[in-house]
Design goal:
Structural class: alpha+beta
CATH class of the largest domain: Alpha Beta
Oligomer: single chain
Helix content: 25-40%
Largest sheet: 7 strands, antiparallel
Shape: globular
Strand order of the largest sheet: 3-2-4-1-10-9-11
Radius of gyration: 23 Å
Distance between the termini: 15 Å
Number of helices: 16
Length: about 500
């Protein structure tokens, strides 16, 4: 999961791209990059770190041009430590192309071999995004056959990309001297939206919040399988390029990943999370009577809408019992010291008066490894809670995710091959209540518009139900992709959003 943005404007875009990436920072904190285009020349700066740390005044001055793109990176494959794998990626032929990608290719291994043996193209990193760029470049070269680049040729190239590539991908690419190309995989697993500025300029971005926060008006979502080409004059050309597209967005976007003020494929993320709290209330009542709960406390941050709705429906007071420290720095390893893992207690602090002597229902958006939940439950007990109940707005996470979330292998998932009672014992709470899969789907579907531009066919909920919508995932594929999960250096802090402690917006 990453955040991507692209702009075709009639004024310098470096500050605009920087601001948009700040609005997408929650989608990746590992690395950031921006490319701008001026007189057919690309100007690029990318590095590991948060947006505010990667770009200084000198870097911004070195990014001239009225067209550009950017990405915040969350590594799901390859080497998380390698600065070379920060995006954007660049190839010089044909025309000169730079690309940013959100998602994960499930057949990257086969494509890499195919690129070398058949297409005679070289990739220099372990990143599947570089594979995707080279497949796109090869197909554009085939479609143009040495001639002029037209929108029809681009759409033919994207059609061929869809036929070769498997997995999830939302893509923004710049083609030197021509314009911006954006497209989305035929299942629409990862989000991509488009908007316009008051002067008619065009922006595409992972989430609507990046458009609206940058002063652009949201226009529409790019449909699954669709390609949009924006030429340098700002003219928009669009075409469906997939043979049989269906809309099956990743349900984890609504549960956890996206900002609550975003609207994805017509669904308000905030409303979806309110609905999850509503359906969760029925599950809680069947396990713990509301009279046995003194207070409902969210585990910051993504669970707040679900927790507020749950408290409202149960008639139980809602309280903030945890304060999040947003400024916890990295751990420095000095000579003679061992590796010190950061505790949840360094990142969350309790407000003791909300726990002391009370029966507390903690609400989280999801439970992945369970280690964080166990420590938070213990923090509540240490603060004096009599009973600690835990409710998850999402069902048990029982399967790995292969579409762009660094979900652990199944053996690391606390719910894999365990009953709810066994999970409860491991976490140490007095009662554990999960959302059910169908209830989750109904709750989020309920937030969909009545007459959408593109009908919602369903969701990719594979980490909950084990059903992979692309139809090409088996045990062998999962094992191979697990082996290519990002490597974190021993002294590096894990910067993924699924790392401790929890979810910041």
């Amino acid at each position: 999961m990453c955040g991507i943005v692209g702009v075709v404007s009639n004024a310098p875009v470096n500050q605009l791209l920087y601001d948009a990436l700040l609005l997408l920072q929650h989608r990746g904190q590992d690395a950031a990059g921006i490319v701008t285009l001026l007189d057919r020349k690309f100007f690029m700066h990318k590095a590991k770190g948060m947006v505010r740390d990667v770009f200084r005044t000198r870097n911004m001055r070195a990014l001239p041009g009225d067209v550009g793109l950017g990405q915040v990176r969350y590594p799901t494959a390859g080497n998380a430590y390698s600065e070379e794998e920060a995006q954007p990626f660049y190839v010089n032929a044909p025309f000169g192309i730079v690309l940013v990608h959100n998602g994960n290719l499930t057949n990257a291994h086969a494509l890499r071999a195919e690129l070398f043996s058949t297409d005679h193209r070289h990739t220099n990193t372990e990143s599947d995004s570089e594979v995707l760029l080279n497949v796109l470049a090869h197909e554009i070269e085939r479609a143009t056959r040495g001639g002029m680049l037209t929108s029809d040729a681009l759409f033919a190239a994207v059609h061929s990309v869809h036929r070769r590539v498997r997995g999830s991908y939302a893509v923004v690419a710049l083609i030197s001297g021509h314009g911006l190309l954006a497209f989305r995989d035929p299942y629409g697993i990862r989000p991509l939206s488009m908007g316009r500025g008051g002067d008619g300029t065009v922006m595409v971005a992972s989430e609507s919040v990046a458009l609206e926060g940058s002063g652009y008006t949201f226009e529409r979502n790019i449909a699954p399988g669709e390609a949009v080409f924006v030429d340098l004059q700002g003219q928009v050309h669009a075409q469906q390029c997939a043979d049989a597209p269906t809309l099956n967005p990743c349900i984890f976007e609504f549960v956890y990943l996206a900002r609550p003020d975003s609207v994805l494929d017509g669904i308000s993320v905030y409303q979806a999370r309110l609905n999850l709290g509503e359906t969760l209330a029925k599950r809680v009542v069947s396990t713990v009577p509301p009279s046995a709960i003194d207070v409902i406390i969210p585990i910051p941050e993504s669970s707040r809408p679900s927790a507020t709705q749950l408290a409202h429906l149960l008639g139980v007071p809602y309280r903030e019992g945890f304060v999040k420290n947003r400024y916890v720095g990295r751990t420095f390893i000095m000579p003679g010291q061992g590796v010190r893992k950061k505790s949840v207690r360094q990142k969350l602090n309790v407000i003791g008066s909300e726990f002391k002597g009370r029966n507390v229902l903690l609400v989280d958006d999801s439970i992945v490894r369970g280690t964080t939940s166990r420590e938070i439950v213990q923090m509540a007990r240490d603060a004096g809670a009599r009973k600690v109940y835990l409710a998850s707005a999402a069902p048990p996470v029982r399967f790995p995710n292969v579409y762009g979330i660094d979900m652990p292998t199944k053996d690391e998932l606390v719910a894999h091959d365990r009953s709810i009672e066994e999970i409860r014992e491991l976490i140490g709470c007095d009662a554990l209540i999960y959302q059910d899969v169908e209830g989750m789907k109904r709750a989020i579907m309920k937030a969909a518009p009545a007459s959408p531009r593109v009908p919602l066919d369903g969701f990719d909920a594979s980490c909950f139900d084990g059903v992979y919508v692309t139809g090409d995932i088996d045990l062998e594929a999962i094992l191979r992709m697990s082996g290519n999960r990002p490597r974190i250096e021993e002294d590096e802090e894990d910067s993924s959003r699924l790392a401790l402690p929890n979810h910041s917006e």
